[in-house]
Design a protein that fits this description.
Elements lengths: L23 E8 L8 E4 L2 E4 L1 H16 L3 E8 L3 E8 L27 H23 L14 E5 L2 H13 L14
Antiparallel strand pairs: 1-5, 1-6, 2-3, 4-5
Length: 186
Amino acid sequence: MTYNPDIHHRRSIRLRNFDYASAGAYFVTICAQGRECLFGEVVDGTMVANDAGRMVESVWHVLPERFPVIEPDAFVVMPNHVHFILFLVGAPLVGALSLAVGQDTRAGTRPAPTNVGEVVGAFKSLTTHAYTIGVSQSGWPPFPGRLWQRNYYERVIRDDAEQEKLRTYILHNPARWAEDEENPLV
């Protein structure tokens, strides 16, 4: 099917005029393509990750090496999706940048700003690459076209109470799998 603007309406869920490179906390959900359960299973309310699920979690833990301006927070891998909280803490200056009037500022540089989309894109790319290797070398189930759905859900966390509520949601997500809208058996 080709794109038809009269029937294909993609409404953005992002806050209008918000800079997603701003320091702050973000809640993110990324779903496997077709909600395929590729990362393990929930047994008696506990997520039991398979090798692929453990790989996804390991990529989460190494993201700060790629993006020093992020601080990972709560994370859960589910059979067919992940939830996490991510902090963008700002890009530090690199080099000897002086802002004094009349001084040469060429010695200093600032890394390109990181935004939530770049972090999610890298996460998807790294996990897809590793999963593809797992398919060919370890017999993991192949995925249908893409490992992850095209988009993702994110929410700007506005205060400490909301942050704690979302951390609790992430922590208890496996226990609620039987009612989860991402569960293909519901």
